[in-house]
Amino acid sequence: MIDGLHIATDEIVITNGALEALNLCLMAVTRPGDTVLIESPTFYAALQSIERMGLRTVEVPSHPRDGIDLNAMEWALERHKPKACWLMTNFQNPLGSLLSDDKKKALVTLLTKHQVPLIEDDVYGELYFGDKRPIPAKAFDTEGLVMHCSSFSKCLAPGYRVGWVATGRYSKVIERLKLTTTLSASVPAQVALAKYLQKGGYDKHLRNLRHTLLVNQIKFIEAIERYFPEGTRLTTPQGGYFLWVKLPDGVNALEIHRMALANGISIAPGPIFSAQRGFTDYIRLNYGHIWDARIEASIATLGAIVKDLIP
């Protein structure tokens, strides 16, 4: 038993990062023209995968702190009859939201009632700032409807591209899809990770990484409060990498993005996180880099750009 999960080894498929795991799951349970339920805003790679496979999206609003709105989700399930649901339950990208254990249980109960499989993207679950790791929604799955995806990319070795999926009832079809697409994840990378894990340094590394991210988040928030104009609001996630920043009314995120790039600053504008191109006055900031004078200067520059664009 790990992180509240009881999973047999033959249920796990090793993939080239979590994104391949997520795509294999999507391929396993949908066909072109089907509908997929997603949260809004959502991870932009989910939108790209859904579009590439010829699928349609139904966006359900998600709260910056508590995650997806289950009442709106139930209405969408009954009205649109989606073939799959793709969600981040722990420290969602871009919001940083975290579903409580009770809400995860209610989520799985609701999807089980409608027999809609859940593709759970849990790549940030290890990056918590509290006392213990938040358990995945998969822990409440009693019928094999939840496909739980994660990887080492966000918490240890991005370049190794080693991920996995706990496949639930879809193990055979996902194994076949993996075999007929990329055959196998890198064996040398898997061996290197296995040897590192056997030496027992992973937990210490994660503790250090969590501490660094928490310090970075505090520094970012303090800098935004110092340099951004009145009317700016932002989230304070309990883990992960991201801050979701609401700009003052009338400020356009795409314009901020263009001007930031001209100053050598990379941000993610809100519209890329929605199939409807909404969230035009939001940006996502990544506090995953070590705080230094250069980053503070970039935040100050961003704040000045936002001030200049207030109508």
Number of domains: 2
SS class: alpha/beta
Rounded to the nearest angstrom, the distance between the terminal CA atoms is 55 Å
Structure summary, number of beta strands = 12
Just name the CATH architecture of the largest domain: 3-Layer(aba) Sandwich
- Secondary-structure element string: EHEHEEHEHEEEHHHEEHEEH
Can you give a write-up of this model?
With 311 residues, this protein is α/β, with parallel strands linked by helices. It has nine helices and twelve strands. The mean pLDDT is 95. The strands form two sheets. An eight-stranded mixed β-sheet has the order 1-8-7-6-5-2-3-4, sandwiched between helices. The chain has helices at residues 17-29, 44-52, 70-80, 101-114, 171-181, 187-198, 202-227, 253-262, 293-309, and strands at residues 12-16, 35-40, 56-63, 67-68, 84-87, 118-121, 146-151, 162-166, 233-234, 242-246, 268-269, 282-286. The chain is globular and about 55 Å long. β2 (35-40), α2 and β3 (56-63) form a beta-alpha-beta unit. The protein has two domains: 9-198, 3-Layer(aba) Sandwich (Aspartate Aminotransferase, domain 2); 203-309, Alpha-Beta Complex (Aspartate Aminotransferase, domain 1), CATH 3.90.1150.
Task: Compose a concise summary of this entry.
This protein has 311 residues and is α/β, with parallel strands linked by helices.
Structural topology:
Blueprint: E1 12-16, H1 17-29, E2 35-40, H2 44-52, E3 56-63, E4 67-68, H3 70-80, E5 84-87, H4 101-114, E6 118-121, E7 146-151, E8 162-166, H5 171-181, H6 187-198, H7 202-227, E9 233-234, E10 242-246, H8 253-262, E11 268-269, E12 282-286, H9 293-309
Parallel strand pairs: 2-3, 2-5, 5-6, 6-7
Antiparallel strand pairs: 1-8, 3-4, 7-8, 9-10, 10-12, 11-12
